[in-house]
Amino acid sequence: MRTRSILHLCIGMIALASCTSKLTSLVPDTPSKAPNYFCTWNTQGYAVSYSGSDMMRSAMTEENILGKGQYQNWVSFFPKIREDLYFVMDDSWDIPRNENSANRNPYLGLCELGEGRFPSFRGTPAERLRQLTKRIKQEGWKGLGGWICAQKAGGYEHQSEEEYWTERLKAANEAGFSYWKVDWGHRDRNEGWRRMLTRLGKEHAPNLWIEHAMHGRFIRFSDVFRTYDVENIIAQPLTIRRVAELLPYKSEGENKGLINCEDEPYIAVGLGCAIGIMRHPMDGNLPDGRQDEVFPPVGHNYKRCLDEVVRAVRWHRIAEPFGVDGNFMADTVMLADHWLLHENETWNKGRRTGSTIHESAPARVSRNMPLPIVDDNSEERPYILSSTYPTGAIAIAAIGRALGREYVCKEVAVTAQAMDWHAPIGLFGHFKEVCLLYPEHFEQKGNRKPKVLAQDLAGDKAVDITSEVKIEGCKLTIPGEIIRRVGLMASSPGDLSAPGLVIRIIAK
Questions:
Q1: In angstroms, what CA-CA distances link 346 with 208, 291, 353, 374, 486?
Q2: Local confidence band at 445 (pLDDT 50, 70, 90 cut-offs)
Q3: Which residues contact 7 (CB under 8 A, 6 or more apart)?
């Protein structure tokens, strides 16, 4: 399989070389098949100023998703990558409009589009869901998904678990529903129940992605496994550590074993993971005037970093996420992050203002390649993540650090091993320089030197950087200034994202 993929990549490169003069973009027009999505939970929270889970559930309505009023029109988000993303409705798309409590709520787990919440969509449960799916796709999204409570709804005691979930999976399949984000509930940590759901899904809804969570070992029978919620002020080390802890597992049977590392797009591309976007473009304070406690405008300012989402999702058009069956390496050296907490900087009500939050993760993690060499051993150095994808594409990401009250993105020089001169290179973050070492010299035709093209993954046009990089024997050196300049060429006004670019080497 790997050999065939690389062969296809080489064939594509030959075609690319033959039309270099006409080249406008290194990013394919075809949307990725990766199970990336945008999830509405934090948008629900923003719309009601995070005034409790019951109010957040009450915000899951047709008018908020499709309406044109203030804090509405959620389907208008992420226009550049919408066709690459599933639109996932979070808790509580499937319960009556006025039943928003989680305590003894008999409707949780119903999995039928709430008629009161979505009054324009009528008919049987499958028909209602199919109509909404069609509408979401008309808005440009790849498909529709939903949050699933891990329990049967009340009133179905006469049905076995298999009968109950088979009915709902068949309805999802009939409706063309694309994604189940299976979260908490009475059976959320029940391995047998989750295995049953995976088995029934493959039988009755083969095109439906079923995402699991909770215990790391569940990834063995999952097509997608989510690393779960984090506090954004210190999300990077916790997410990296959770991904690293999942990598030793092996998928069972034909299960894909993909990791979804949620709203950390550069971690995702650096480690071959899927993306679950939680941030949204409604910037500034909450409607009630308070600071947004989930996405505070400090540290890694997520809502001012929307371009990094675009770049990572478009990288998946070049190289899709891959499962946990491959080789990996994790550094024995751990880097420790810490954040001095100020008011309204986390959703975690157990935190005390003035306290310091601590998290740590391996300094380097790699998949299907050796750990890169980093020229800096200081405490402020970034996390370095790298992967060789099954197609041969290589991605390297430098992830910033939460240190005190700052998000520090120190530039370092990174040297990594690569295998295929013609494979795409994805670089994400700030670097002093990146050096790639190949097993053999670049094979050129006569005295004609290769052409090196690069492109901001958020943009649509490649530029020639041949004269600004060095190819010496088996070594390619890319200066940090080139990564910064090209990787930010298509930046949106005011966006604070780190660079993200793709590079391809073409034989003339």
A1: 33, 10, 10, 32, 34
A2: low
A3: none
Check: CB of residue 329 under 8 Å from CB of residue 372: no
Assigned token pair, 420: 């295929």
Q: Which residue has the tokens 């083969």?
A: 206
Q: H-helix or E-strand containing 239?
A: helix 235-246
Q: How far apart are CA 235 and CA 214, in angstroms?
A: 17
Burial 237-255 (b: 16+ CB within 10 A, else e): bbbbbbbbebbebebeeeb
Tokens of 102: 């989680």
**Which residues contact residue 77 at a Cβ distance below 8 angstroms, ignoring those fewer than 6 apart?**
38, 43, 280, 281
Phi-psi label, residue 332: left if phi above 0, alpha if psi -120 to 50, beta otherwise? alpha
Q: SS3 of 434, please?
A: strand
Structure tokens at 260: 């979804």
- Contact (Cβ atoms closer than 8 angstroms) between residue 340 and residue 404: yes
Q: List b or e across 394-422, with b for residues whose CB sees 16 or more CB atoms inside 10 angstroms.
A: bbbbbbbbbbeeebebbbbbbebbbebbb
Distance of alpha carbon 335 from alpha carbon 328, whole angstroms: 19
**Per residue in 21-58, pLDDT tens?**
455 899 999 999 999 999 999 999 999 999 999 999 99
Sheet holding 433-437, edge to edge: 373-374, 413-417, 433-437, 475-479, 470-472
Opening angle at CA 498, ends 296 and 90, nearest 5: 50
Q: Do the beta carbons of residue 220 and residue 257 sit within 8 Å?
A: yes
Instruction: Give dist(CA 55, CA 147) in Å, integer.
Output: 17
Asked if the model's pLDDT at residue 438 lies above 50, the reply is: yes
Place of tokens 């295998």: 419
Rounded CA separation 208/322 (Å): 18
- For the chain, state the CA radius of gyration: 23
Strands across the sheet containing 401-404: 356-362, 334-340, 401-404, 406-408
Q: Which amino acid is at 264?
A: E
Helix (H, G, I), strand (E, B) or coil at 406: strand
